[in-house]
Structure formats: C-alpha cells, structure tokens
C-alpha cells in the first residue's frame, strides 16, 4: 500500500476531490496547512507597521491506495491541481506497512 | 420653538441609527467568506466616514435645501450654511435644524452601505468608494429630495414614506440589482460552496439593526408623541412577525428552520414596516410583517433560480421588502393613526395605492438606471472588479493588506 | 396625562431591554461548544420573535388585563383590544398604554430565554418552541399577573418586586431547575471537558446585558424621576460590587480570577438588585451586590457537587440571585427611598420579609411544578432531547442545517 | 430644580458611556494575540467593577467634593455622604446630584482602562489591579478636581475641557508612555510578527466607542440644550473626518487603506474633538478631525521609529489626539457657541491658547511622573511583568486559567 | 521504529488517549483533519440555498513507537475508537528511519 | 528522498524556519497540531469547575529533502528548536518513494 500526500492550493480542493472520485478513489483525508516555498508570501500592515508573512495557506490531501493506483492518482492530482503558477505544490509518495479499517478490523486493500 | 424632549429623542435616535451601519457591517461581514470579512466591514465603515462628510458639505443641501423645480435642493446650504440651532419649520418646528440634519445624515449613510451586499467579495475598493460618493450625490440626494424635501415632486403628489421605504430600501435594492447584474457572479458561485464564515457575527449584526431601527422608525416621527409610540410598537411587531413567518416557511419548505433565516426574517419585517409604521395600526403592522417574511423568503429562493449573484440579498430583502412596505402603506394607511397622512385602499382611498405604486416605480427606475450608468462608466474608467487572483486571495489581503483572524 | 419625557424614557428603556435578549444569546452562546452556538443563540432569538407575537395576542391581556379572582387577567385585551395611546391609570398615568405594554413585552421575552441555559446543547428545537409558548402562557403570564397585575394576589399582599426578581429571575430559575433535572446531563458531562467555545462572545453578551439592564431596572420606575435615578445608580453599584466580589472569592478559592467569573458576578449582581433597586438605598445596593457575588459563586460550586447539569447556571445565578434579591428587599426596603413601597426588616417592619419569603416560595413552587408537568408531557408526546448522535453532531447541524464558523 | 429631560439625557448618556468600556475591551482585545485576548478584555472589565466601587467610596469625593486648596476634594462626601437626589448647583442646577455623580463615574472608569493598551500582553494581573486603584486615587481624582472640580486650580485659570481632553485622554496617554517605557517591550517585539488576532472584534469595539461617545461628549453639556446639539454634531463630524483622513493618508503612504486604520482614525477624531466639542463650531470640528487623523497617524508611525512598545498606541491616539484637541480648543473656541466658555486665538484671544497649553503640560507632567513613581514602586514590591514563560503562554492561561476560543 | 497514524471520530479522542496511556504510550500528536469517505456528509442551508458538505471532521492521531508495540497499539485503537458505524476511520502503519528527541538529542527507542 | 517531520514549540517556528533557510532549505510545510507527552498540560477553570487539559499546542514542520541533507537538517532543527525544557519535541525521519512538483511534473531532487 502507498500513501500519496499532496500539498495544493486551497481553492483547488473541490476540483481535486472530484477528479479523484472519478477515478474511483473513495476516501481521503485533508488538513489545513501552511506552506513556505518559492511562492512569495504577502505583506500585512497594522497601525503603520509592515509585516511580511512568508507562510501561505495550503491544503494537504492524503490518500492511501493500492500500489497499482499510484501513477494514476499522481497524474490525476497534477492535472486537477495545476494552475501553472508558482506555489501549485508537491506530491509525495510513501510506503505503508499496513492499513486497518477501525470499524471492521479489515486489513490491506479491503480497508480503504 | 425647540422642544427639549423632542431634541433629546432625535439625538438619541440619531445615535441608534448611527449604530445600524456598523450593525450592517457585522450582519454582512458574517455572511461572506473569512478572506473577505474586513473588506466587507470596511465598505460600511468607510461609508460612515465619507458620507457623513459628504452630507455636511453638500448632501444635506441637495436633499433638504431650497427646492429647485421639485427635483433637487440647491447648494444654498452647502457646508451647513444657515443650518443652525433654531428650527427650520419646513421639517420640524420643535427640533434644532442641526438635529434634524444629523438624524437625516445617518439615513444617508446607511443607504449606500446597504448596496454593498450586492457586490460583496469582488469589488475594487477605490472604485467602490468613488461609486458611493457619486451614488450619494446623484441618486440618494435627489430621491431623498423628491420624497421628503420641501417642494419635492413625489412628496407633493402625496406619497407616504414614513421612515424610508422608497428613499432607503427601494433605492438601495434597485441599485443593488444593477450592481449585481453588471459586476457578475462571484468566481465559483453555483459550483463551489460559498458559506457564511461567522453566523454569530451576522446575528449580532441583526440584533444591532433591530435595536437601531427603533430610532430609525420611531425617530422619524421627529417628535416624542403618539406617532412615535405607534411607530415604535409597529416596528417591533412587524419584525417579530416576519422573523417568525420566515422561520416557519423555511421549516416547512426546507425541513428545518435556520438561524440565518430567523435573523433575515426580522430584517425583512423591519424593512417592510419602515414606510408604513407612522401611518398604519398594529393589526396592519402584524400583517405587513407576516407578508414581508414570506415574500422576501421566496424572493431569495427565486434569486437562486434566476441566477444573478446578489450576494447578500439586497434585492430580495430591501428591494422586495421595501416595495411591499410602500404598497402596503397604500393599503393600510389610516388617518385615525396619522391625521397628517392619508387613508389607504382599505380605508376607502384607492388613489393612495396608485400614488404609492408610482413612487415605487419611479424610484426603482431612477435608481436602477442611474446605478447602471455610474457603474458602467466606472468600469470603463477604472474597473469594477478585482482580478481573479485577488478574488481568490480575498479582499482583506489584496485591498487592505490585512488578515481578519489569527486565532 | 401622557408625559413626553416619561414616554421617551420608557421607549428607550424598551429598546435597551430588547437588546438584552440578543445580549443573552451571546452570553450563553459563548459558553457552549462551537457545534451548539447557533442552536443556543437561536433559542433566544426565536423567543424574541415568538413571544413578542404571543404577547400582543394574548400574553399582555393575561398578565395585565382585567383581573379574574387575583390569579390571571382575562382575555378582554386579546390582540391589544382597547390598549391604545392614552394611559391606563392602573399602571401609569403618564405613559401611553401601548408604551407600557411594549416595555413589559420585553420582560416577557427575556424570561423564557433565560431558562434556555438549563437545557443548552441537547434540546429538540420543536419541543423547545412549544414549551416556550406554553410556559409563557401558563407560567409567566399568571405569575406576572399575581405580582404586577392590578388585582394580582401577591401584589395585593404587598410583596415588593421592583423590576422582576420573582417574575423574571425566580420564575426562570425554578423552571430551569425542573428542566435540568428532567432532561438529564449532557453526554460526557463530568467525564469529558465541555469548555466554553468563545469567551469574548460571552463577555460581549454580559456587557450588553449590563447596558440593557439600566433600561430594565431604571425603566421600571415608569417615570423619569428620583426613583429612576435611584434605581439606575443602585443597579450599577450592585453590578460592580458583585463582579468584584465574585472575582475576589474565586481568586482566593481557586488561585486565580477568571474573566468568565467577573462577567458572571456582574450578572449575579444585576439579578440581585433587580427586585430591590427602587426600594433600597445605595449602601443597601452595595451590600446586595456583595452578597450576590459570593452567594451565586458558591451556588455554582455547589451545583458541581449536587451533580445535576444546569448547563449555563440559570439556577445558580437567576434562581439564587433572584431569591436573594427578593428577600433582601424585605430586609433593606426603605420608605424614605420609595414612599409607595414599604419598610423592610432593618427599617422596623419584619412582616415585609415574611411577605417577600412567601412570594419567593410560591413563585418557586408554581414555576417548578408547572415546568415539570409541561416538560414531562412534552417529553411523552414528542421527546425533549435530541438523539445521542445528534447531540454528538451538535444542534447547529442537526436542528438548523447550519455551521456557525468557517474561519 | 431638577429637570426631567436633562435627568433622562444624562442617565442615558451614562448608559452610553458605560458601554464604552466594554467597547474599549473589544477594541483592544481584537488587537492582541489570541492567547492574551481575555487578559486584555479582563483589564477593562474589572476596571468597570473596581473603579465604580472606588468612585462611590472615595473617588467622587476626591474629584468633585469640597475643595482643598485647589488641589483635591476632601473626603467629606466619602461613600456618597450627602450626595443625593437634589441638585448640587456647583455642577448642575437641573440634575439630581446622584445623576451627575454616576455620569462622572463612567469617565473615571474608562480613563484607566485606556492606559491598559500600553502594557498589553505582559502585565501581571495583581499588580495591574493595584496600580489601577492607586492611579485612580492619586492621578485621576486630583487631575479631575483641578480641571472640573469647583475650586480646582486649572478650572480657575479658565482652561477649557468640555468632555475630558486633559482629564481623560492626556492623563491616560501620558501615563501610558510611562508604563510603556518602564515595563519594556513585549518579547519578540520587532523581531517576530505580532498581529492583531481578531480585527472584526476591534471594529465592533470602535463602533461601540463611537456610539457611546455621543453620550460622553453631548452628555457633558449636562443639559439637553443647544450646547448638547452642537457637541453631538461636532463629535460625529470630527470622527468621520478623522477616519477619512487617516484612511487617505495611509493609502498614500502605504499604498493601501486598512480597516484598522479607518477605525483608528475614527477614535483619533473622537479623542481630538472631546475637549472642544462644546466650545467650537462645526467648521472647526471638521478641521480638528482632519488634523487629528493625520497627526495621530504619524505619531504612530513615529513610535515604530522611536522604538518603545506602546502596544495599542495609547500615546499616539489618546496622548497626541488629546493634546491636539486641548490646544485646538485654544485656537477655535468661540463664545458665540458657548457663552460660558472663552474665545480662542482665532477669535481674538491668544491668551486662551496659553492657558490650554499650560493645562496640557501640567497634566502630562503630573500624570507621567506619578505613573512612573507608582509603577516603579509596584515593580519593586511585586513585579510588573509576568515571567517570560508566562508571556509566551499568554495571559489568558497564566493569569486567568482560561482559553478564549475552542472553535 | 514505526509510526501509527489513526483517523478517528473526534468525540472518541479522550477514550483513545486514555486507552493508549494505559498500555504505556507516553506521547502522541493529534491534528484536526477532515475526512471524505463512505460516511455521508451533511446538508447545510443558507438563505434558501442548499449545499452538501462532503468533508466530515475527524482527528488524526500519530504515535511513534517501537516495532514490538505495533500490534498492541493498533488493537487498542480499534477497541477504543470503534462505534461500529460507518466513518470510524482507518489506521495506517509506517516505517520510520530515525527518531530524535530535540531536548536531549537522544535517538531511537529512547527518544519516544 | 527523505521527509523530516519535527514537532516543535510554536514560538520557535520563526527561528527554525530561518535556520533552515540559512542551510539552503527552500520549502517546507507546517501544521498546527496538539501534543501529548511528558510536558504537563494546564488547568482551566470555568464557572468553578476545574479541567485539566493534557494537549499542548505544537507545530509540526515537514521538510522533504535529499538523503544527503538529512543529518544537517536534523541538527539545524535541534539547534534552533531547543530550549532544554521538557516539551521541545521530536524529529522523525521517513523514506519517501517519490516526489513530484505539481506545477511542472518534475520528479525527485528537482522537485523540492
Ligand atoms: N521541501 C519541501 N518539503 C515540504 N513541503 C514543501 C517543500 N517545498 C515546497 N513545499 C510545499 O509546497 C508548496 C509549494 O511550493 P513552492 O516552492 O511555493 O511552489 P512550487 O511547488 O510551484 O515549486 C509550499 O508552500 C510548501 O507547502
Ligand atoms: N483511502 C483513504 N486514504 C486516506 N484516508 C482515508 C481513506 N479512506 C478513508 N479515509 C479516512 O477515513 C475516514 C473514514 O472513512 P469512511 O469510508 O467514511 O468510513 P470507514 O472507515 O468506516 O470505512 C474518512 O473520513 C477519511 O478521513
Ligand atoms: N511517541 C510519540 N509519537 C508522536 N509524537 C510524540 C510522541 N512522543 C512525544 N510526541 C510529541 O512530542 C511532543 C513533546 O514531547 P514531550 O514528551 O512532552 O517532551 P520531550 O520531547 O521534551 O520529551 C509532544 O507534545 C508530542 O506532540
């Protein structure tokens, strides 16, 4: 089993979710995160003082899938999350030792 | 002669009406996404600043100053020239002229602030500000003069508008429609979820509106007598009735009553009773409220079907509610309540309904067309709408270099 | 004859008291978990709508209408029939009858809203709404008639309740106890942490309550004379004193003063002074406040030990504080402050304390038993409590299809 | 003789001014980091409790009681001894003495609350509380006596301070400077981002301040006559003008207008007009507002350069704005507006400006030095500042065992 | 070393934490996340418009433990987080290369 | 490729970010999390009732880097995040199968 972890722009989340659903992904978990990278942050001004905020809001999507799906999922995410502008994000692929569904105790493929 | 109690009444009413604009800022601010809350609040707050200044400079003179052919006041009272502490009998014999002026100033402030709900979450701040000043000058001031100014042609027709059904609500509602149509839908409208980001803030705003509306409506009697009492009670009854009916209708229609619905219903009722509260009795107030709750609810449901993006429902609540109130005044007005008013259809005077209808149509037409022209021109000169990237990032950051929350 | 200043005073007081219900909504809303904040706010807000309508239809008539055997008003004034702009001397010779009616209406609104704190975070909305209407009709209206209505039997005994210690606070506190016992503890109460989700919201609510309470207490003088001044100052002094003592007691007892404690203390003081403010002097007000702060604090500590889940401490603050205030009136009342009142124990009239005690006991007994019956019946017919799944998901989603925050 | 309308006016003004302190709590609370919001709100809220009690015990007597050599009131009126329902002609012939007392009490409350902005996010609660009581006793009460008390030496010089430019704003601003210098910068100031955590809360606070300020300024006329009307309108005009100029200046200077800026500008304008509003005409009010907006903006920009950490800009807004207002009164005061006042420089009386300058300098000097001494002593005895660990964890948890939000 | 990552229903967090403490787990990290899966989302209604919200609030628990503990921890989580209703969540097991305690620089087993 | 995941004290985030930037790390992702461990939680009091809150606010930093950088990054984090007091946090190192940059589709080293 593999875990795909993608950091994407927040406003892309619905598109990515729909695209993943369409290729048969039935589950995923998302987290609000903040990213630091090539994409510039923004300036904020309070009472005449200027601050540069480097961290940019991002969303992290985690999907655990069978090994055979990896390529397809990565490509789907790329296609649906891409804007072509700096800050589109990254996709990381990890190996997973074991997956269990809490409700049933099922393991492996059947658990996701 | 100046009457102390009346002066006090109107000063305090002025303070209450002043509070409505920040109330509106919160009411609206809670309904937008969190990236736009400051931008939304700012639009109301800056109007409180800029229109107050506009009003003392030229607005009051245009609206209430010496009449020019029934269509506008002249600039004779520019900079409050001649507007002092003694009463101006044309408006009130018991109030210092300045007291009347500042009370009316708060109406001039909140009216353009109402419009901002239509183009929420996507308008350029600079363009918005210029639009507001132009709109106040070319739309609000004349309409106010027509309806309330000595010599105004709609006033002379005998149209009844106790506290601003046409002047405030219809004018802003019609302009909101123009703005919503012209500026177009928000990015993602209809495809992505666009949820209110802070409904308790919206409820707080509705509460402050309700509270301030006592000053708005009862204060419009300009004197602390029976008329004010009638307006006060009618206002509360209509607000409560409309809040209740909206709740019930939504419960039936959608399966559950919503908090936002109850609050919206209250506002709809307050809008509906505004033109009528000093002319109709309490049973009429109850009916006006009940109808306002139902009517505005379905106006909003309709919007979703018609497909334009009047983001915070200015048309459905202020436009429709205001028009209903103005017409209802033509139905329920009763000289037994206000001898200086007129009887409505149900009291044997069908003509009044015609006059009311005319004032509604003229106000809608004028406000709609003028707003369209102004916005079109501004769009051409400086652009109405922020860039798509800025819309995604939100107004707070892109227009004001700020973030609302760091919780 | 109608007095303009008095009319103005009571109109503005009415507006202030109106604001207390949304203030309470925020005070309570901040204390619940974020999944229940809209449900909690909604309970107060919808009461503002529904009880206002109930009041003009039959409530006012039952509470203040022509007496029937000392126990209720008849329905002669149904729909405000005969309640007009001239004074009704039985209640005030200087206020339009409608002004008195609408002022009292705000009391009728806030009282059931107070009870909602007891069953917060777990009551079905439909059942709650029906309970509120029944409670208003069968508990509030009669008690209000007994204590304040012309011909009411407790009034005739000579019991003193200036602004609602028994009518508002004890009646809601006793009913809250019944509700808390009957509906049972919240899931997880005592085992999981159930923290307030937004204390600044609670503080804002407390501030609006304090602000509105000036109208509540001083307005109860019904005339802008010395009595109103005394009530106004007494109210502020008692609120401040109780806030301070609660702060200090908690500091000593728990090691640190809490913000919620200071705000709760202020409310406790406001409750305590409510029945007394127009009968006692300022030294007495200070003492009443000090005692209220201490007493209500320990009442709340006690609750945790007794183990029932009166979620937002309606019993500890309104029940205990109201009872203390009613009894304290029997101690400190002074005819030098209010000639139309009576002397209390410390001014040589121990009998007054007995009368006060009787009114407290009767109110507690009646409100408690009636609430128990009503709730038991409703539980049987339609269920009081949301399902455990809905309780976990929260009232906002399950009762109203809404989410409070999308920050 | 007591005048009912005046009594009503001042009672309601008192309620409005009371609301300003919670308004300030929110204004300040929104600007701090979320871990300190309760601590910040608490500082204002507990002042409302403790200073209200201090005021009725000894504060009022020291400030307004029988004069002792022009420098303080005696304790003859301790515990409001002799302060009753009949007027005290030295302050007002138409108000119950108690009404005047409670109105002034609200000024005594908000003044130390203003100072808390200077040491926000780092002061020990216990020390703060003691400081506040001492400051009220040794700084506020005497200054108040000098400027407003019968026999006060600055009053006798003929200095004009309509609603508290020196007494409230300069005294708190100067003390704030002392506090900021002595307590030192917040950990991370200048190196880490220290952003406001909830700007909508700040805007709400600003709105409540503006609303309450009508009572503060117009109420200071103590009678509901032309002077109150003038003060009311001048207040609104100056607030609006200053909000607008701050917005514009920031727009030019920083590229974008900020919401916090517009709100801060409004407060700056309200501060600036405070001493002047009952002595100057409306054109002067407009100018005072415009200058206040610009001046306070640059005072704040300057702070960042000077490097002390006056966290919420008490010096820049209340100190600088108050001083400007006091001096502007010496420029624009006009006996045509207030016959009981004096003419200023522009009306042919340059001496008045000198008197105003003197009162400004004396107030700054006295408040600054006394605050320095008090704080130094308290630092030595019990420490001013929380430990660095506590500062990192925040005041809410470490001083009050609370968390503001669980969203 | 292994990392156990469990996605659970939010109201189960205290139970799970206590159960883990009882089997000797001394540290963990939790994150508020949103899940998408078989469990249906909910409907929200604003001003007459209906929205379906697919994402359901969940809590992610991360515990890093020695290999020998894996089975026990997984079982403990299953036992304490299970309601038997759809949406109970998943448990993922990952391998970890190295663990360091920042305070002391200790590595491996000693670091957790 | 490796992922370094560090749980640190929130007020250290700027220091750690700057230290990582200085050794050439150009991207990272952070998440607000809550930790449970040796560090004691705190007491909260509401209306006279006392609650002990075990979970302490922490920040999780995730940095994906080339294998050769691992040691240096770990050391940099230790140095910049250490206060020496309990609760400083942990650093976990994972192996990653693949990294992709969404914007360009680049893989591996070039993607971070
Ligand atoms: N080395 C890294 N480790 C972890 N997350 C990273 C790393 N580099 C970038 N990210 C994440 O990816 C986001 C986008 O990266 P950025 O460099 O801004 O643009 P792009 O992905 O287009 O090159 C960042 O905001 C951050 O959340
Ligand atoms: N493939 C997956 N990858 C990551 N997280 C998943 C995956 N499938 C489910 N989840 C997470 O587990 C949660 C529960 O899954 P769900 O399908 O609703 O119920 P169940 O676990 O009972 O089958 C989801 O809300 C989501 O957070
Ligand atoms: N076994 C673990 N698995 C995951 N996270 C852990 C584990 N142990 C500790 N943590 C995280 O590290 C943080 C610090 O741990 P703690 O035991 O308090 O102090 P220290 O790191 O100084 O030993 C915790 O708050 C938690 O977030």
Give a quick precis of the structure.
With 112 residues, chain A is α+β, with helices and mostly antiparallel strands. Chain A is 20% helix and 41% strand.
Radius of gyration of chain B over all CA atoms, rounded: 20 Å
Number of helical elements of chain A: 2
Overall CATH class of chain B: Mainly Alpha
Question: What portion of the residues of chain B fall into strands of 2 or more residues?
Answer: under 5%
CATH architecture grouping of chain A: 2-Layer Sandwich
SSE pattern of chain A, N- to C-terminal: EHEEEEHEE
Report the β-strand fraction of chain A as a percent range. 35-45%
C-alpha Rg of chain A, in Å?
17 Å
* CATH topology label of chain B: Ammonium transporter fold
> How many individual domains of chain A?
1
Strand order of the largest sheet of chain B: 1-2
**H/E element sequence of chain B:** HHEEHHHHHHHHHHHH
Which structural class fits the helix and strand makeup of chain A? alpha+beta
Helix content of chain A: 10-25%
List each distinct ligand once.
adenosine-5'-diphosphate
The backbone outline of chain A, from C-alpha atoms, is: elongated
């Amino acid at each position: 089993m593999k875990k795909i972890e993608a950091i994407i722009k927040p406003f892309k989340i619905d598109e990515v979710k729909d695209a993943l659903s369409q290729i048969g992904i039935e589950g995923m978990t998302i987290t609000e995160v903040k990213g630091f990278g090539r994409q510039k942050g923004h300036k904020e001004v309070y009472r005449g003082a200027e601050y540069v905020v480097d961290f940019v809001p991002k969303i992290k999507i985690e999907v655990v899938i069978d090994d055979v799906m990896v390529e397809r999922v990565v490509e789907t995410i790329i296609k649906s999350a891409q804007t072509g502008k700096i800050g589109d994000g990254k996709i990381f692929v990890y190996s997973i030792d074991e997956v269990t569904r809490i409700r049933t105790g099922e393991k492996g493929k059947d658990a996701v | 002669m100046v009457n102390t109690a009346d002066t006090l009444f109107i000063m305090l009413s002025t303070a209450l009406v002043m509070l409505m604009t920040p109330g509106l800022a919160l009411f609206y601010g809670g309904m937008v996404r969190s990236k736009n809350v400051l931008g939304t609040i700012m639009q109301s707050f800056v109007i409180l600043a800029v229109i107050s200044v506009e009003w003392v400079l030229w607005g009051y003179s245009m609206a209430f100053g010496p009449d020019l052919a029934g269509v506008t006041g002249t600039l004779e009272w520019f900079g409050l020239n001649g507007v002092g502490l003694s009463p101006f009998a044309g408006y009130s014999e018991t109030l210092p002229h300045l007291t009347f002026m500042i009370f009316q100033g708060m109406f001039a402030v909140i009216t353009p602030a109402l419009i901002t709900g239509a183009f929420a979450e996507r308008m350029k701040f600079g363009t918005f500000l210029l639009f507001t000043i132009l709109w106040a000058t070319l739309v609000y001031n004349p309409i106010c003069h027509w309806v309330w100014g000595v010599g105004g042609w709609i006033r002379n027709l005998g149209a009844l508008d106790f506290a601003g059904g046409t002047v405030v609500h219809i004018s802003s509602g019609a302009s909101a429609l123009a703005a919503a149509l012209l500026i177009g839908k928000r990015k993602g409208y209809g495809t992505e979820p666009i949820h209110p980001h802070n409904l308790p803030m919206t409820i707080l705003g509705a509460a402050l509106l309700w509270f301030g509306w006592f000053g708005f409506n009862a204060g419009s009697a300009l004197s602390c007598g029976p008329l004010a009492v009638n307006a006060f009670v009618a206002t509360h009854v209509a607000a409560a009735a409309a809040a209740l009916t909206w709740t019930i209708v939504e419960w039936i229609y959608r399966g559950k009553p919503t908090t936002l619905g109850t609050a919206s219903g209250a506002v709809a009722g307050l809008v509906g009773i505004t033109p009528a509260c000093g002319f109709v009795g309490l049973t009429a107030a109850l009916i006006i409220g009940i109808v306002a709750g139902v009517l505005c609810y379905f106006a909003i449901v309709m919007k979703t079907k018609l497909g334009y993006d009047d983001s915070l429902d200015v048309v459905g609540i202020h436009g429709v509610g205001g028009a209903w109130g103005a017409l209802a005044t033509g139905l329920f007005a009763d000289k037994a309540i206000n001898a200086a008013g007129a009887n409505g259809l149900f009291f044997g005077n069908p003509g009044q309904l015609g006059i009311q209808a005319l004032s509604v149509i003229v106000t809608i037409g004028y406000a709609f067309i003028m707003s369209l022209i102004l916005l079109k021109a501004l769009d051409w000169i400086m652009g109405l709408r922020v860039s798509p990237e800025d819309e995604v990032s939100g107004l707070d950051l892109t227009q004001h270099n700020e973030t609302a929350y760091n919780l």
